[in-house]
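Data availability (excerpt). The following record was deposited with the supplementary files.
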Amino acid sequence: MAEPLTLLIGGLVGGLLLLLLLLIWASCRLWKRLCATLSYEELLETSAQATPAAAASQQGDRLRQPHARTHASRSPGMPFMVPPSLEGRDWMPLDSREWLQAPRKPCPALEPLPTPCSRPLGEAHGLGALSPELYKLPEGKSESDFPSGCRGRLWFSLEYQQEAERLLVGLIKARQLRAPSETCRPLVKLHLLPDERRFVQSKTRCKSADPQFDEHFVFQVSSKSITQRVLRFSVYHVDRQRKHQLLGQVLFPLKNETLAGGCPRTIWRDLEAEGLEPPSELGDLQFCLSYNDSLGRLTVVVLRARGLQLPEDQGVVSVFVKVSLMNHNKFVKCKKTSAVLGSTNPVFNETFSFQASAAEMDTASLSLTVLQSVRGAESCPLGRVVVGPYMYTRGRELGHWDEMLRQPKELVRRWHALCRPFQA
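Predicted structure:
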């Protein structure tokens, strides 16, 4: 009984093993066929002795059987499908197992675009580098447009720090200075008027009529008085005996418009030749005129005087200027500057405004009288200047008035010689 049972169990086990082996063999066959259908077959490397045409033929024979249903647009030696948009193009094999489209016609070389540089960009700078010539600003008129008789031009920068109450002045450069000798040795002194005693100065530049200074200076001045100050640049030539010869100067009144913004502002001005002229018999007075036609406002800025004839036997003398607005020789309004003690060249730098309509500018005039005051005595006039239309003035005074009307809202500065107080 036990022996037939053993034979039965052995037969069942043998059958199961045989069935398992058949299943494994069938699975392997199915897996190979599936891999052959879904995956790309690796390209055969072309031998060194075979030509490219023969290698492509061998690959085509090998790949033709497993891919009997290949699309008609596929090349025989190409183991992948070609999209319809790329049909009809020629393909060539590469040794690196990559495929590249063979160009039908050589691509023409692109012509380089013209550049604003005088030489090709590739010769001057490497790939990715910036060409400074492309970003170079064109030379402004300030560098080339010099009027006849110009004694030179000065460039400087201004910045006022409100919190620290500091005025930062940058002395940049000067151009076309007219020195008395061929070798110009320029030097610049800076004053913040009306303070004549304190100043700062630049270094002396040797043998250059176009010096480059690039120096910076700091003036401590309160925000309340900054708009009443005038910055003066005095340009000197230092000779071999170290004597200073004045070449010219720049007077720049500080205004809110100039200091607004809180950032440095670069300014250029021509050197004044008027300050080099000898004073007249009674002295000279410098002031600015401006008229705002939209507001009907006439502005007078009394800057300074020079060469005043002060008495020497009357002790301490103070000098001030009285500004009077006249209409048809009738007094309208009068304003006075502060008094400056004991100076023949006083600096006032005070601004006054008068109301005058545009219709009144043909009949109005300004009278500026310089007076001296001695303690215990009445004020005595030293001289005066009258500016106005053709009805009252001629020459330099008339020209100053007309230029003010031609340039509305602009300060026009001039020197005027003082005349006798009784003269108009």
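Summary of structural features: The longest strand covers residues 317-327.
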